[in-house]
Design a protein that fits this description.
Blueprint: H1 5-17, H2 21-34, H3 39-51, H4 55-68, H5 73-85, H6 89-102, H7 107-119, H8 123-136, H9 141-153, H10 157-170, H11 175-187, H12 191-204, H13 209-221, H14 225-235, H15 240-250, H16 254-267, H17 273-286, E1 303-306, H18 315-326, E2 331-332, E3 337-343, H19 353-372, H20 379-382, E4 388-407, E5 414-421, E6 433-436, E7 451-454, E8 460-465, E9 469-472, E10 481-490
Antiparallel strand pairs: 1-8, 2-3, 3-4, 4-9, 4-10, 5-8, 5-10, 6-7, 6-9
Helix pairs in contact: 1-2, 1-3, 2-3, 3-4, 4-5, 5-6, 6-7, 7-8, 8-9, 9-10, 10-11, 11-12, 12-13, 13-14, 14-15, 15-16, 15-17, 18-19
TPR repeats: 73-106, 107-140, 141-174, 175-208
Keywords: TPR repeat
Protein name: Tetratricopeptide repeat protein
Length: 501
């Protein structure tokens, strides 16, 4: 007896619900050729491709289904998600707005639209989307959490704390919210509260990657290196191997450091700036060649030039200085900074037009940097990020006696600064940018660690591998030193809430 189409569709739905995505794809395609107007077949194929992470063909299948049923809000919602995965942000935004137009109470669509806008740095619009979703569904713990993340990006740290606390009140086991709440208190310099929230996350989920990572970071900053290592190993997050190497090296466990470093080198590619910092320092200490090929000769990869848009007296320079003076941006505590303040949040994601314009200029300079060093045979250039994303961006204001101790930007790829105000000094080194191969109290078995310095002028940009140590040399002039600093990293993927069949 022949199986009817409705029976076949029911069978495909059962297979989809059982996670048999390949089988659904294999059966749905010939059925669609036979029944091209059958909406459910297109929808099932789209869902199976989507769940198989075949996002481009999934987008095509969703679009075919939408041509047959253009008033299905959830279908537009899922179509938006796969378009986001394909980096087609304009199409994704249009699809979310279509879903919302069809169903204005679709709070998940408002939330996902907020995440998409936040990803693009449109923070004020993201806040509006999150808040709209929360007006529809005020009990949505995830919505409060997402609002907290964008408020933190804006530098509104106390408001972010309130949002995370609301998420936890609604969902007491929300480990991500505990972890992010800890990070926000860390940004405000209250490590007692920060650690308390990390521990609260770990009590609920001992394997929580972010909380383990943050606890490891706290412990290694407290020089409790052996205690930090298990937390980084448990996290398996981002640069956790770099952090383990750091703990071994700072704890002067040189044999363990070399063994782990050499194992990592064999795995390749050499794309971790933090490991490059450590490997270079170890090699200089022990008088041997550096085998880690991220950027072994980092001192030769520093880029410095004036930006015509920021010449003294230029409108953009004046607007940036005015925004920094007047913008409502919280201060982020910075232990290495003396006689100065550092902004919280991500400056280039703020709504002020001047910060957005500066971000575009810096991205242009990243590409010019890549072009200048295009023939270099090191991972810094050969694996240079295709999509430019700022890990973070902030301003630093210093007064007389101001300086910043030698450090690296562990989560960057390429780092830099643009200089908006510089003190006039008789000594060419006062207030200068110094870069080199030693800092952060790394163990010194010998004294020869090369350094160089640049005395930037107002309107200059300096770019350098994130593996280099750098510091501000103290100055004694009665003047301000103001720069905007930033890190570039390879772009990350978005995670979205999903609708199920």
């Amino acid at each position: 007896m022949a199986i009817s189409l409705p029976q076949t569709i029911n069978s495909l739905i059962q297979q989809l619900n059982q996670g048999q995505f390949a089988a659904v794809i294999q059966q749905a395609r010939p059925l669609i050729a036979q029944y091209p107007r059958e909406f459910v077949l297109h929808h099932l194929l789209a869902l199976a491709l989507d769940q198989s992470q075949q996002y481009a063909p999934a987008a095509e299948a969703y679009l075919a289904a939408l041509k047959l049923n253009p008033n299905a809000a959830e279908l537009w919602f899922n179509y938006a998600i796969v378009q986001t995965q394909c980096q087609a942000f304009d199409a994704a935004e249009q699809a979310y707005r279509k879903a919302i137009a069809l169903n204005p109470q679709f709070f998940e669509a408002h939330g996902n639209l907020g995440t998409l806008l936040q990803k693009q740095g449109r923070l004020a619009e993201a806040v509006t989307s999150y808040q709209q979703g929360l007006r529809i569904q005020p009990q949505d713990a995830r919505g409060h959490f997402n609002l907290g993340t964008v408020l933190r990006d804006q530098g509104q740290l106390q408001a972010a704390v309130a949002s995370y606390e609301r998420a936890i009140a609604l969902f007491p086991n929300y480990t991500d919210a505990y972890n992010n709440l800890g990070e926000t208190w860390r940004d405000q310099g209250d490590m007692t509260k920060a650690v308390g929230y990390y521990q609260a996350a770990l009590q609920r989920n001992p394997q929580h990657a972010g909380a383990n990572y943050n606890m490891g970071e706290f412990l290694y900053l407290a020089k409790r290196f052996e205690e930090a290592i298990p937390h980084f190993q448990a996290s398996q997050l981002d640069d956790w191997q770099s952090r383990v190497l750091y703990c071994l090296y700072r704890g002067e466990k040189f044999d363990g450091f070399k063994q782990l470093r050499d194992e990592i080198i064999k795995q390749g590619p050499h794309t971790a700036p933090f490991i490059a910092t450590l490997s270079t320092h170890y090699s200089l200490n022990h008088g041997e060649p550096d085998p880690y090929q991220f950027c072994p000769d980092g001192l030769s990869f520093v880029y410095h030039r004036p930006l015509p848009e920021l010449a003294p007296g230029s409108p953009l320079l004046a607007e940036l200085l005015l925004n920094i003076a007047q913008a409502d941006i919280a201060e982020r505590k910075q232990a290495r900074l003396t006689n100065g303040k550092q902004s919280a949040g991500n400056l280039f994601k703020r709504p002020e037009a001047a910060f957005r314009a500066l971000a575009d200029i810096v991205k242009r300079e990243f590409r010019l940097y890549q072009l200048q060093f295009k023939d270099a045979e090191c991972a810094l250039i050969t694996h240079f990020p295709d999509t430019l994303e700022f890990t973070s961006s902030w301003y630093v204001k210093m007064q007389k006696g101001g300086h910043l101790d030698a450090h690296i930007h562990e989560i960057g790829w390429l780092s830099g600064a643009v200089y908006l105000a510089m003190p006039e000094t008789a000594d060419p080194q006062e207030g200068a940018f110094e870069y080199g191969t030693h800092g952060d109290q790394y163990p010194q078995l010998q004294r020869e660690f090369p350094t160089r310095f640049i005395k930037p002028a107002v309107g200059d940009i300096v770019l350098f591998p994130s593996s280099l140590f750098h510091r501000t040399i103290p100055f004694h002039a009665e003047a301000e030193r103001i720069c905007v600093a930033f890190d570039l990293k390879p772009a990350a993927h978005l995670t979205m809430a999903r609708s199920q069949y």
